């Protein structure tokens, strides 16, 4: 099944105005070009996983082209520390349930 999560995983980078995508894509190592003028997720900007590109077509085009042609720029964004977690929340929950609730 090709759900959105699988499509994001196969993408080279992501263009979006979605707040949830701004949080999910960095977990997959995908740079996100945010088509907004502001974001309620400034930690992604600070970490380098997101770039605000607004809605101007020329700026969006230039940002896309940069990610496609500038390997160092792409690597910086795709390898930036994910500010939204390290992907271990599920295991931590299981450990707590096993330790505290299943005794």
Description:
The chain is mainly alpha-helical and 103 residues long. It has a single domain (4-101), classed as 3-Layer(aba) Sandwich (Rossmann fold), CATH 3.40.50.2000. It is built from six helices and three strands, in the order αβαβαβααα. Strands 1-2-3 form a three-stranded parallel beta sheet. It is elongated. The model has no long low-confidence stretch (mean pLDDT 92).
In short:
It is built from 6 helices and 3 strands, in the order αβαβαβααα. It has helices at 4-10, 19-24, 42-47, 57-69, 71-78, 89-101; strands at 14-16, 32-34, 50-52. The protein is elongated and about 60 Å long.
Keyword list:
single chain; 103 residues; mainly alpha; elongated
Summarize the helices and strands and which ones pair or pack.
Layout: H1 4-10, E1 14-16, H2 19-24, E2 32-34, H3 42-47, E3 50-52, H4 57-69, H5 71-78, H6 89-101
Parallel strand pairs: 1-2, 2-3
Rg value: 16 Å
Q: Which of globular, elongated, flat, extended, rod-shaped describes the shape?
A: elongated
CATH superfamily, by name, is Glycogen Phosphorylase B
SS field, number of helical segments: 6
Q: What is the CATH architecture term? A: 3-Layer(aba) Sandwich
Q: How do the SSEs run, as a string of H and E?
A: HEHEHEHHH
Q: How do the strands of the widest beta sheet line up side by side?
A: 1-2-3
Based on secondary structure, the structural category is mainly alpha
> Which bin fits the share of residues in helices?
40-55%
CATH topology-level name: Rossmann fold
β-strand percent reads 5-15%
Distance between the termini: 38 Å
Low-confidence stretches: none
Overall mean confidence score, pLDDT: 92
At the first level of CATH, the class is Alpha Beta
Oligomer: single chain
* Overall strand count: 3
The domain count comes to: 1
Major sheet size, sense and barrel closure: 3 strands, parallel
């Amino acid at each position: 099944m090709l759900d959105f999560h699988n499509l994001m995983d196969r993408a080279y980078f992501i263009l979006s105005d979605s707040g949830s995508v701004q949080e999910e894509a960095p977990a997959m190592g995908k740079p996100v070009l945010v088509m907004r003028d502001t974001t309620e997720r400034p930690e992604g900007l600070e970490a380098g996983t997101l770039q605000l590109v607004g809605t101007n077509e020329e700026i969006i085009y230039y940002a896309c082209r940069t990610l496609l042609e500038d390997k160092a720029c792409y690597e910086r964004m795709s390898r930036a520390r994910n500010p939204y977690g390290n992907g271990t929340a599920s295991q931590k929950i299981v450990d707590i349930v096993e330790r505290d609730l299943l005794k």
